[in-house]
Inverse folding.
C-alpha cells in the first residue's frame, strides 16, 4: 500500500477543492496611487488596478523585494531589495523593466516614500551610527545622485506634508511590531518636523504604539493601539488632540 500514499497526496494537491482552499495569502505593505495598488507578496512586488482585477508581477528574483512606494504621479515604484547582498533602495517604472539602483552604502537602506514633487525618494538608513546602530531619514534623487541626511535625529519612517515643507516621522524601530499592548520604551511619539527651523511638534502619546503616519491635506493619519487594538487614528493640524 505504500506506493498509493504519494499518489493520493498528489491527487489532493491538484484537486480544485485544495486549490480553492489555498487562496492568496500574506499580501503585505500596500502602496496606493490614483489608479493602482502595489504590494509585496512572497518576497516579490506586484501591482493591480485600484478597482481590482488580475495582479501583475513586477519582480522575480531569488532576493527579497519589499517596502514598495508608488510615486505621487503613479509612474514609478521605489522599493528595498537585497539583490546585491545588502538592503538598498531601487526605483523602477510601474510598467516593469530593469530597476535603477539609488543607494550603494553598506548600511541597511529602506525605501519609505517620496517628496510631493516626485523628485526625491525618502529612505531610512542606519549608516554612520556606530557603535549603536539606529535609523535616520535621508533623501536621494529619483534619477540617481547624492544622498542627503534630514535633520530628524532618529527616524525609522515618515512622510512629507503635501506642500513638502514639513515632515512627520516615527522615531524608533520596534524589535517586535506585533507585541500586543506593549507600553515600553520603544514607543515614542510621532513627531512633526520643520527642517528649515528645526521646530518639532510631538503628537499626543502615552507610551502607545503609534506607527505608519500618512499626511493627507491638513490631517495626519496613523495606526495606534491606544484603545488596546490597532486602529486608524487622526491628528488634525492646529489642534491638540487625536481622534479615532
Amino acid at each position: 500500500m505504500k506506493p498509493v500514499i504519494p499518489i493520493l497526496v498528489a491527487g489532493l494537491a491538484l484537486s480544485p477543492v485544495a486549490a480553492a482552499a489555498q487562496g492568496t495569502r500574506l499580501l503585505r505593505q500596500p502602496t496606493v496611487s490614483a489608479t493602482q495598488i502595489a504590494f509585496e507578496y512572497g518576497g516579490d512586488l506586484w501591482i493591480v488596478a485600484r478597482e481590482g482585477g488580475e495582479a501583475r508581477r513586477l519582480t522575480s528574483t531569488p532576493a527579497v523585494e519589499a517596502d514598495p512606494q508608488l510615486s505621487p504621479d503613479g509612474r514609478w515604484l521605489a522599493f528595498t531589495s537585497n539583490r546585491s547582498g545588502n538592503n538598498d533602495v531601487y526605483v523602477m517604472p510601474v510598467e516593469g523593466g530593469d530597476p535603477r539602483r539609488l543607494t550603494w552604502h553598506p548600511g541597511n537602506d529602506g525605501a519609505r516614500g517620496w517628496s510631493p514633487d516626485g523628485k526625491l525618494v525618502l529612505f531610512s538608513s542606519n549608516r554612520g551610527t556606530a557603535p549603536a546602530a539606529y535609523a535616520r531619514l535621508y533623501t536621494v534623487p529619483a534619477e540617481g545622485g547624492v544622498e542627503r541626511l534630514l535633520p530628524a535625529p532618529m527616524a525609522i519612517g515618515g512622510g512629507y506634508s503635501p506642500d513638502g515643507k514639513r515632515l512627520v516621522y516615527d522615531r524608533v524601530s520596534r524589535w517586535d511590531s506585533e507585541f500586543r499592548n506593549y507600553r515600553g520604551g520603544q514607543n515614542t511619539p510621532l513627531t512633526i518636523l520643520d527642517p528649515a527651523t528645526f521646530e518639532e511638534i510631538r503628537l499626543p502619546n502615552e507610551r502607545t504604539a503609534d506607527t505608519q503616519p500618512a499626511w493627507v491635506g491638513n490631517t495626519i493619519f496613523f495606526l495606534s493601539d491606544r484603545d488596546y487594538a490597532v486602529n486608524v487614528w487622526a491628528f488634525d493640524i492646529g489642534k491638540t488632540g487625536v481622534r479615532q
About this structure: Helices lie at 4-14, 16-22.
